[in-house]
Structures are given as structure tokens and as C-alpha cells.
Specification:
The chain is α+β, with helices and mostly antiparallel strands and 291 residues long. Helix content is 36%, strand content 18%. Strand 4, helix 8 and strand 5 form a beta-alpha-beta unit.
């Protein structure tokens, strides 16, 4: 289920950290969950679930004392918690799928915020009554953004503490030609638009670990696996989640533009790709988009 105006949703989406108390109509909540459940997968063999918790208080109570408070995420009327089977591509796949749901919610005028920290997996897993091999990956509040003076003050205060959250790396820093670091020389406005949408993706502490190499009709996605914030916790590679999100932006924007390409995450030899594109140590090849 792809939103109609995906590119405009990508440009509009921000992390919303304070919400109006009014509930979201049941059918809208269900349509958001459905957009996640029917999202395009990178690996169809990985079972994922989106758990809608209509009484948001039940989730915010499980979060850390400060962040779960009414002044922050505790203001959200509802939450959606994303869980996945643990398989080799599970983080990349979840980033790709959950972001499709986040953008659908944005299209409906709803606020969201990827939350990867601020909770312990064990506690949230117990709350959900998870099956044995199921991991809690992330959650998002879901509700109407609080645009009142109070809501805007809270938003402003949070941004004072994280002034870089709206900033993104320049396109030249994340998209190269056929060799690592070589300039992307292209007049292809459609390609530039899709890359711009990838550039605007949200990421853990805004680390933006994605890099793209363009070789004709092939685009390689790589991840900075050694950056300051490229953390791995309890077997969860957060930078892969981020790159999955940027790949979703690229894929959906390209689709809206009219391309019928897709990301391939298996079926290539990463060692060969690293050599071919001179990808430096510390970076991981995660996918190849073919038009
Ligand atoms: C995987 C992931 C995890 C995140 N975890 C948190 C979090 O725990 N708490 C929080 O306030 N924001 C979290 N964020 C939101 C980022 O800080 C935010 O996306 C980034 O600063 C860019 O800002 P924007 O989303 O408003 O464009 C997370 C984002 C992603 C993609």
C-alpha cells in the first residue's frame, strides 16, 4: 500500500515528540498498521509484526522514566511496536518496511517518531508476550502532532538539545559515481530526485550512515559500519536499520517517478562489489537497486 504523494510525505515528515491527546479514529489506525503489514519486503522470509497498542499509556509506562512522561512520548495516545524474527537481514528489512508505514501515517496527517532507544527490549518483549525468537526492533508513537504553543515550546526545547536534527549531509557526501568518492556526474533529474529523497531519511541520532554508488542503471547501497554511532547492541545493527529506511525512501520515490526497479539484497558477491567500486574498509554493501 503506497501513499499517493510519497515524495511530498518524505519532505514533510519529521520526528514528532509531543502529541494532542485526542485519539486517532480506529479505521485510520488500522489502515496504518495494514500499510506496514502489506509493505514491500526486502526478504519475504522474515516474519515481522506491527503491534498496535491503542492505550498509549501502557507503552509509555514501559519506557524510561523521563521519556515516557506526559511532556514527551507519554503524550501520545497510541503506539505501534515493531517486532521481527531474527534472521541475517532482519534489521535492514525492518527499516525498509516500517518506514513505508511511517510515510503512510505522515500522509494521513499523523505524527510519528522512530524510537530505537528509551526502552529495554526485555521489558517491552514481556509486555507484548513475545514468541521466543522474536525481537523488539523499534516503536513509534502515533497521534496528531501538538501544534499548540505548548507543543511548539516542547518541540523547540528538544531541538535546542539536538540542533542538528534537521540537518543532512550534502548529496555529494553520500552519493558517488562508479568509484568511491568520485563525483556523481549526472543530468538525470529523476535519479537526483530519488537520491534526494534517500538523503532526507531519518536515522538513529541523525547519523545518516548510507552511501550510494551509481553505475548506469545500477545503484549500490552501502553502510558506514564504523561510524561513531554505528552501534550494534544485542545482535541488532542499528546502522542497517537506518540504511533500510533510506532504501525505502529511494525505492518509493523512484516508484512514484515511474521507475519499476527494485532492491536486491542477495544474489551478489559483496567482496566483488567492494573491489569493483573501491569501497573502503568499514563500509558494508547492503543492496543493489536495478532499474
Ligand atoms: C532507527 C531510529 C531510532 C531512533 N531512535 C530515537 C529515540 O530513541 N529517541 C528519539 O527521540 N528519536 C529517535 N530517532 C529519531 C532521530 O533522532 C531523528 O530521525 C533524526 O534526528 C532526524 O530528525 P527528523 O526525523 O526530525 O528528520 C530515531 C530514528 C531512527 C531512524
Amino acid at each position: 500500500m503506497t501513499p499517493v504523494n510519497i515524495i511530498s510525505a518524505i519532505h514533510r515528515r519529521i520526528s514528532v515528540r509531543h502529541y494532542e491527546p485526542r485519539p486517532v479514529p480506529e479505521e485510520v489506525l488500522q489502515s496504518v498498521v495494514k500499510s506496514g503489514e502489506t509493505s514491500v519486503a526486502l526478504d519475504d522470509d522474515i516474519r515481522i509484526r506491527f503491534h498496535l497498542i491503542e492505550d498509549g499509556k501502557l507503552v509509555s509506562e514501559q519506557m524510561t522514566f523521563l521519556t515516557g512522561g506526559k511532556w514527551l512520548f507519554g503524550s501520545s495516545p497510541h503506539f505501534i511496536i515493531a517486532t521481527s524474527e531474527e534472521k541475517p537481514l532482519f534489521m535492514l528489512n525492518m527499516g525498509f518496511r516500517m518506514e513505508q508505514m511511517i510515510l503512510f501515517a505522515t500522509e494521513q496527517g499523523l505524527g510519528t517518531c522512530w524510537i530505537g532507544g528509551l526502552f529495554t527490549e526485555k521489558r517491552m518483549g514481556t509486555f507484548l508476550g513475545l514468541e521466543k525468537d522474536e525481537r523488539v526492533i523499534a516503536l513509534t508513537p502515533i497521534g496528531y502532532p501538538d501544534t499548540s504553543l505548548y507543543g511548539r515550546i516542547i518541540h523547540g526545547l528538544i531541538h535546542l538539545g539536538s540542533p542538528d536534527s534537521r540537518k543532512r549531509k550534502r548529496l555529494e557526501q553520500i552519493a558517488f559515481g562508479t568509484n568511491w568518492g568520485s563525483p556523481l556526474e549526472t543530468q538525470d533529474d529523476e535519479l537526483l530526485e530519488a537520491l534526494e529523497c534517500a538523503r532526507l531519511a531519518p536515522s538513529w541520532v541523525n547519523a545518516q550512515p548510507w552511501r550510494f554508488l551509481v553505475n548506469g542503471r545500477e545503484i549500490v547501497a552501502a553502510a558506514d559500519a564504523s561510524g561513531r554511532y554505528s552501534s550494534v547492541r544485542d545482535g541488532k545493527h542499528y546502522y542497517r536499520l537506518d540504511v533500510g529506511i533510506a532504501m525505502a525512501h529511494f525505492f518509493l520515490a523512484a516508484k512514484e517517478i515511474g521507475w519499476d526497479g527494485s532492491w536486491h539484497v542477495t544474489g551478489f558477491d559483496p567482496v566483488h562489489v567492494v573491489k569493483q567500486y573501491a569501497i573502503p574498509e568499514g563500509y558494508e554493501v547492503l543492496g543493489i537497486y536495478r532499474r
